[in-house]
Amino acid sequence: MSSFDVHRYRAEFPNLKINVHGKPLVYLDNAATTLKPRCVIDAVNAYYVTGVSNVHRGVHFLSEQATAAFEYSRQVVRQFLHAAKVHEIIFTKGATESLNLVAQSFGRQFLKKGDEIIISHMEHHSNIVPWQLLCEQTGCVLKVIPINEKGEIIFEEYLKLLSDKTKLVSVVWVSNSLGTVNPIKAIIDAAHQRGAVAVIDAAQGVTHAPTDVQALDCDFLVFSGHKILGPTGVGVLYGKEKWLEAMPPYQGGGDMIKSVSFSKTLYNALPYKFEAGTPPIAEVIGLRSALDFLQTINWEAMKAHKQELLDYGTKKLLTIDGVRIIGTAHKKTSIISFVVEGVHPHDLGTIVDQDGVAIRTGHHCTQPVMEFFNVPATARASMAFYNTKEELDILAKAVVRAKEIFHA
Question: Where are the beta strands (DSSP E) in 46-195?
């Protein structure tokens, strides 16, 4: 039994006080996006109410104030990731844009025909398609690490795929559809032993455990603000300075330049070289508030609480006839993907919604995973630290009711 005071933290989330179809909201869609604590909402609101201005370009008070808040947020992200230098932190629209930036800027600069890129079978589409596009553009070859029936990377097969042709390995830390926690340190080390660059999709991982990019020794790491209590529309790319310096800009426009003429443009220094145009200022400030909030929580207690939710929810659902869990890795986080015999996941999601329960249904942007397990889609309950066992009881009862409706 964990000592985590869940109700203390639930009070910080206004959405948990609303009703859906006359029932208290049971929010179990955290892998898609997390709810936002009041401090994040207040921080975004304060920017728009008392300090709205563009950054980096003005000498007036509001612009200087906004710039200071924006750049302080970058420092907070650096500390959160334990990056060596603040200019290794690039603000983007999200993990998807971060991965596309690496694929297009690093990939087109350093990869050539015949070079090999390795990803895993459990990747989100945003860590598949950018590499496929790069392969079409450069003639690189995409290799895929297989997974087993539990939804785990087969590490021995990964080692077999590695060769002198391997130039880049890009893997997910925590699977958004299976909950699997991958051995990313071992994956990174093996890639480096063959001279390959290692990219980590940490969209789910940064909420799973404290992140230390220097200890991991990853070359790039990406995450999205909205999956870690922050606003939508903002993400982070961490990159080692040596790579970011050597990479060309991803987009052109304001703020990423030193000077522009019709004959030649000189690019700005890091990190601004990769931040063309007006950035998501309010969202960056909100992300800082989210990370500050997380730092007030005991991560070990939080992790133990989420493990209890995973164990409890898994056992509760498996007591229901016809329920099958998709993704049973030995190491997994608080994500439960499941199917119910005789009930399509979309129908299940609609029925449980009538009881106020929000779950995700579909392929979760991991169609290769669904094909591997031979299912069209799954229902996914993903728990955050503010969820409770009582909410999982409500989910289980709603699933039983759906079975009764469909005579399953």
Answer: 89-92, 116-120, 141-145, 166-172
Report how far residue 82's alpha carbon sits from residue 211's, in angstroms, rounded to the nearest whole number: 7
Q: How far apart are the first and last CA of the chain?
A: 35
Give catalytic residues, as residue numbers.
365
Q: Tell me if 170 sits within 8 A of 131, measured CB to CB.
A: yes
Q: Considering only 266-270, 299-303, 365-369, 384-388, which range has the smallest mean pLDDT?
A: 266-270
35 within domain boundaries: no
The pLDDT assigned to 161 comes to 98
Pair 334, 310: CB distance under 8 Å:
yes
d(CA 391, CA 226): 22
pLDDT at 175 over 90: yes
The model's pLDDT over 91-138, given as tens digits with 9 standing for 90+, comes to 999 999 999 999 999 999 999 999 999 999 999 999 999 999 999 999
Q: Is residue 6 packed enough to be buried (19+ CB in 10 Å), middle (13-18) or exposed (0-12)?
A: middle
Max Cα–Cα distance, the chain, nearest Å: 72
Domain end (from 294, 310, 338): 294
Q: Are residues 96 and 64 in the same domain?
A: yes
In this structure, the answer to whether residues 286 and 139 fall within a common structural domain is yes
How many domains are contained in the chain? 2
